[in-house]
Amino acid sequence: MALGMGCTARPGNSKNNKTGSWRVFKPVFEHEKCTKCGMCSTICPEGCIGEDAEEFPVPDMTYCKGCGLCAEECPSEAIKREREEK
């Protein structure tokens, strides 16, 4: 896979390449603050945020690259970025 300027990859590539192994930050969802608006799953460039049985957002950490867009755009501040511990 050829990388573009700034070592970026096109959106959707992490579904083909498991990016979770090199993630530095991870999203932590606080369901008690979540309004289930769907903004996080809409903004995720990799499309790796799904829903659990109660319709709360749940990231697939195998493909999440920790970019933080979901946390940045969450209107209820229900997502925090934490350093990944390996």
What can you tell me about this protein's structure?
With 86 residues, the protein is α+β, with helices and mostly antiparallel strands. The chain has a single domain, classed as Alpha-Beta Plaits (2-Layer Sandwich), CATH 3.30.70. 12% of the residues lie in helices and 19% in strands. It has 2 helices and 4 strands. A hairpin with a 5-residue loop joins β2 and β3. The longest helix is centred in the middle third of the chain and has 5 residues. 22% of the residues are buried. The model has no long low-confidence stretch (mean pLDDT 84).
SSE layout:
Blueprint (H helix, E strand, L loop, with lengths): L24 E5 L9 H5 L5 E3 L5 E3 L9 H5 L5 E5 L3
Antiparallel strand pairs: 1-4, 2-3
Properties at a glance:
two-stranded antiparallel sheet, 86 residues, Alpha-Beta Plaits, alpha+beta, 2 helices
Give the radius of gyration.
13 Å
Number of folding domains?
A: 1
Named at the architecture level, the CATH assignment is 2-Layer Sandwich
The run of helices and strands is EHEEHE
Shape: globular
CATH topology: Alpha-Beta Plaits
Low-confidence stretches: none
Structural class label: alpha+beta
Task: Work out the number of β strands.
Answer: 4
Helix percentage? 10-25%
Text of the CATH class: Alpha Beta
Order of neighbouring strands in the sheet with most strands: 1-4
Distance between the termini: 26 Å
Q: How would you state the average pLDDT, rounded? A: 84
The number of helical elements comes to 2
For the sheet with most strands, the description reads: 2 strands, antiparallel
- As a percent range, the share of strand residues is 15-25%
